[in-house]
Amino acid sequence: MIINLLAGGPVDYIPNLKEYDSYGKEEIVWAGIDRGVYHLLQFGIKPKVAFGDFDSVTEEEFQEIVCEVNELKRFHPEKDETDMELALNWAISQRPRKIHIFGGTGGRLDHFMANVSLLLKPLQVIEDCMVEIIDRNNIIFFKKPGIHSIERDAEKKYISFLPVSPEITGLTLKGFKYPLNNCHISIGSTLCISNELIINHGTFSFNQGILMVIRSRD
Question: Is the whole-model pTM more than 0.90?
Answer without folding.
Answer: yes
